[in-house]
Amino acid sequence: MTYFRSPLFVPFCLIILFLSAPYSYGDFVEDSPPNLTYHDGALLTGTITVNFIWYGNFTESQKSILTDFIVSLSDGSVKTEPSVASWWKTLNKYYSNTGISFPTLTLGKQITDSSYSHGDSLNISDIPPIASRGPQKNAINVVVTSADVGVEGFCISRCGLHGSGPGSSMNRFTYIWFGNSSTQCPGQCAWPFSQTDDGPPTAPLLPPNGQAGTDGMVVNLASLLAGTCTNPFGDGYFQGEPETPLEAATACPGIYGKKAFPGYAGGLLLDPTNNASYNAHGVNGRLFLVPALYDLSMFGCATTV
Ligand SMILES: *[C@@H]1O[C@H](CO)[C@@H](O)[C@H](O)[C@H]1NC(C)=O
Ligand SMILES: *[C@@H]1O[C@H](CO)[C@@H](O)[C@H](O)[C@H]1NC(C)=O
Ligand SMILES: *[C@@H]1O[C@H](CO)[C@@H](O)[C@H](O)[C@H]1NC(C)=O
Ligand SMILES: *[C@@H]1O[C@H](CO)[C@@H](O)[C@H](O)[C@H]1NC(C)=O
Ligand SMILES: *[C@@H]1O[C@H](CO)[C@@H](O)[C@H](O)[C@H]1NC(C)=O
Q1: Do strands 300-302 and 47-55 pair parallel, antiparallel, or not at all (unpaired)?
Q2: I need a surface site. Which of 7, 105, 173, 221 has the fewest CB within 10 A?
């Protein structure tokens, strides 16, 4: 079992680096550009179901924000750019470089655990058994814990993680976990919809789906999906040590629009009906905020706006 660290947690050294060299789409960081390399291992490919295990107390409206995001990844019906689907295709190059075909992510099963089967205070080691209730093959099982569920280490070192179950190569399932950050550690895990703990104090952005906690979860889900597909078993695309890798989204922390720097998410689109910030259109007329991804063809962090 392997874990990869949170998408949103910005190590202090990176903050220093970004202060001296902010960058966005196609820009370069002179000091130390992200340099993701392929380690010759497996990438997720084929048709992959994204299954949700709702651990705790969720409303249908909360669930539909996250499930609509998954449908938006591969739905060609959204014609308004920038779209979630075109954001996701930033990862095309990771596949074309290796000859592995780009995966199709579809919304799979939804499993509800509203009886808190492992209690309301979880250890990280509880996550894989909960995730294993989803399909065992060609699957990303997403464990979402509600705001009232404590998870050891949440905030301290991570806002979420991804890993894989037992077995060999493509025969093992992958999983993602993240919690509801709005009550537990909004400054780290729900930024930029919440005041940051680390950077200069700036006004939080208004979330496109009206809930800082849930829109923060979309950012976590988006980042972890990119890492799961391109580095599912620890030998795909990453930079740095395999135990603490920078992956497709984590190589670009805190960047959502052009000219981002710590404490500033970058230039975003504004929804005139409520002044919420977003950078991607999805299905059902939804608006989302998605993180920058490292673009292998641009050698920089690509944002949709
Ligand atoms: C990126 O990393 C690879 C492998 O570690 C290395 O060969 C290459 O020179 C690096 N490129 C840059 C621009 O640092
Ligand atoms: C679930 O959440 C709703 C509001 O979000 C609350 O009214 C209800 O009491 C909660 N149920 C449990 C079992 O915590
Ligand atoms: C996250 O928690 C906040 C505060 O309790 C709540 O308003 C929001 O609806 C929750 N979102 C999800 C997806 O549970
Ligand atoms: C969490 O699990 C690890 C290893 O399984 C164990 O060492 C640690 O004590 C556990 N923490 C708590 C709070 O149960
Ligand atoms: C959006 O923000 C502008 C400038 O602060 C303000 O004038 C306008 O009333 C706001 N619109 C809504 C719908 O809140």
Answers
A1: unpaired
A2: 105
Whether residue 33 has a cis bond before it, omega within 30° of 0? no
Best probe residue, ligand 3, of 62, 65, 110 (max atoms within 8 Å of C-beta): 62
From the CB of residue 156, how many other CB atoms can be counted at a distance below 10 Å? 9
Given a contact cutoff of 8 angstroms between Cβ atoms, the answer to whether 190 and 197 are in contact is no
Closest atom of ligand 5 to 270 CA is 1
CA of 213 to the centre of ligand 5 (A): 22
Q: Which residue range forms the structural domain that includes residue 120?
A: 2-303
| Model pLDDT, residue 169 | 67
What's the domain count of the chain? 1
Instruction: Give per-10-residue mean pLDDT for the chain (305 aa).
Output: 43 28 30 83 96 96 97 93 97 96 98 97 94 95 94 81 84 91 79 78 89 91 97 96 92 94 92 97 97 93 95
Any residues with Cβ below 6 Å from ligand 3, and which? 58, 62, 146-147, 180, 182-183, 211, 213-214, 217
Over the stretch 186-231, which tens digit does the pLDDT of each residue have? Answer: 887 888 988 877 666 778 999 999 988 899 999 999 999 999 999 9
pTM: 0.88
Measure 153 CA to ligand 4 centroid, in angstroms: 10
275 lines ligand 5 (CB under 6 A): yes
The response to whether residue 35 sits with its C-beta less than 6 Å from ligand 1 reads yes
Residue 289's alpha-carbon distances to 27, 172, 175, 224, 302, in angstroms, are: 21, 30, 22, 14, 14
